[in-house]
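USER: For my understanding, would you kindly supply a protein sequence with its structure tokens?

ASSISTANT:
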Amino acid sequence: MSRARRSGGCTFAIDPSLDCAHATPLWTAAANPCLLAAVIEVSGPRLDLSRVKYRAVVAENVCHLLIDLPSGTLQLLVRGADVLRGDALSIVPQVDLGRPLDPQLREIRRLAKLVDGVTEGENDQRLARLVDALRVGDALREGASQRDIALGIYGGDWPGDGEHLKSRVRRMIPLACALVRAGPRAVLAGRI
């Protein structure tokens, strides 16, 4: 049953089945720089869709695949025979050199981790540790003592029960020095 709505002197027919809250998502590379184009191959590492929450729309050998991850959605435009036949797909990403590369490469890394079975929670803990180490490095550069670092970054009592806080700062100092020496590329490449 459609309703009529009047706006600015015009009358529009509204179809309640076209509610945007229930619409099927479709996306294009022009609208989303993070869209990752991919093809289905016969062999290679496989993405197990039974392990993730996803939505898919298949039309004429093309699949719009939206994978829900803790850090946000991964949007794929997949081409290939038998798209979504079974739960495991061998997906090969395709980089479009006519679009910004950084968003595409970031999404390729996310897809690779998903295929490898690495959960984003594991990566988040690693990143939080690296951020703490960078803060320790900044404090060392400013001339802070281990006590100052512990109380300023982690809080609590110095040295703490069983000296755990002191030990934590001592472990962070070599990591902070390694991060500063290696630079951001080593971190992004996963070498640290």
Remarks:
- The chain has five helices and nine strands.
- Strands lie at 3-7, 10-14, 36-40, 47-48, 53-59, 62-69, 72-79, 88-89, 91-94.
- Helices lie at 101-116, 120-141, 146-154, 164-182, 184-188.
- Residues 1-12 have pLDDT under 50 and may be disordered.
